[in-house]
Amino acid sequence: MLEVSYHGMAVAMGRVPRFCVHGKRAGGERADGVASAEATSVREELRGLIRSERQIVGAAEFSVEGEIKGFGYLRCMALWFRDDKRRSPIPLCQVEA
């Protein structure tokens, strides 16, 4: 189960389906991924904080962490940029086996 939080406030939780990277279950490989949600329910106050951070700083920072069965404990920093097409230039995740 993974938890997504914004400055320590939990905003989402979900299970990770089984997957592999380049045909292997685990290893030192790098993989890019995209997360999506089918529905959101965020309080207006929190939505306002996120919107302000994206406008002022250029990106809102979220933490994603939890256990991924068969891989280990995942810790990520996910950035939601003001311009949704922008990507972070550095890897933002680590997995502890």
Report on the structure:
With 97 residues, the protein is mainly β. The chain is 13% helix and 36% strand. It has 1 helix and 5 strands, in the order E-E-H-E-E-E. The chain has one helix at 44-56; strands at 2-6, 9-14, 59-68, 72-81, 93-96. A hairpin with a 3-residue loop joins strand 3 and strand 4. It is globular and about 40 Å long. The mean pLDDT is 77.
In percent, how much strand structure appears in the residues?
Answer: 35-45%
Structural class: mainly beta
Give the mean pLDDT.
77
Number of DSSP helical runs: 1
Helical percentage: 10-25%
Please outline the major beta sheet.
5 strands, antiparallel
Oligomer: single chain
Q: Count every beta strand, where a strand is a DSSP E run of 2 or more residues.
A: 5
* Helix and strand element order: EEHEEE
Q: Based on CA inertia axes, which overall geometry fits?
A: globular
- Ends distance: 15 Å
Strand order of the largest sheet: 2-1-3-4-5
Radius of gyration using CA atoms only: 14 Å
Extract low-pLDDT stretches: none
